[in-house]
Amino acid sequence: MTLTQMLVIAGAFLVAGVAKGAVGLGLAPIAIGLLTFAVPLEQALALMVLPTLATNIWQAIFRRGFLALLRRFWTMIAAAVAALITTATAFGTLGSPQAAGWVGVILVIYGLLALTTWRPAVSRTTERWANPLIGMASGAVAGFTGVAAVPFLPYMQSLEIERNDLVQALGIMFLFTVGTLSLPLALQGAFDSADLKGGLAAVVPTFIGFWLGQKVRNAVSPETFRRLFLSGILIVGLHMAAGLL
């Protein structure tokens, strides 16, 4: 690996880490988009696994409330994992650019609508039956596209949940989905020792960016955070939708 490639990889994870720390999402699509300037897509996916798992572990447990949020969303997590494994096993491949592109289109439409005066809302009572349904749908999409985004992200933004709880809940959900995704990727031979070492090295710039992003999140108002979060969804969606071009 050349010096230029290493610098691009470090910069990609630094920028993606800032987004992850600020709004709780965006690490994978932002980093992959930048990484492809230096390495092939398959290698970019392999490099993502360790930094993504590391930041999601920290995001899930960095503050009190982990067990309470796990109890609140366990049916969503269990349904997502089951659907992901079933879909990934049935199709045998992950990461279809066309399928992921249409997921991106949905996120773009949602982000644009939610940045207007539209305020979707889901009550705690509705969560009881909605959580497992959203988990099942999100797991099925992730098992086919390799991206756990729809309808999970729009749904989470519509809940009655405080912003730090939202970020922590995203970390918990992503921890289980990314961890599950790594299994079919490994079976498809997506990893080698060089990629694992590169992913381990990338944890450092990722966490530097993650720390900076957390500073941003704690410094802004709830409404500003909401707009940052929705803007993050919009950027992620635009990047994914580019696969249709």
Describe this structure in words.
The protein is built from ten helices and no strands. Helix content is 80%, strand content 0%. The chain has one domain. The model has no long low-confidence stretch (mean pLDDT 86). Helix 3 runs antiparallel to helix 8, helix 4 packs parallel to helix 6 and helix 5 runs antiparallel to helix 10. The protein has 245 residues and is mainly alpha-helical.
How many alpha or pi helices? 10
- Main sheet summary: none
Beta-strand proportion: under 5%
Distance between the termini: 29 Å
Globally, the shape reads globular
The secondary-structure element order is HHHHHHHHHH
Query: What's the rounded overall pLDDT mean?
Result: 86
Number of domains in the coordinates? 1
Regions with little confidence, pLDDT below 50 for 5+ residues: none
The computed structural class is mainly alpha
Alpha-carbon Rg, integer: 17 Å
Classify the helix fraction into a percent range.
over 70%
Number of strands: 0
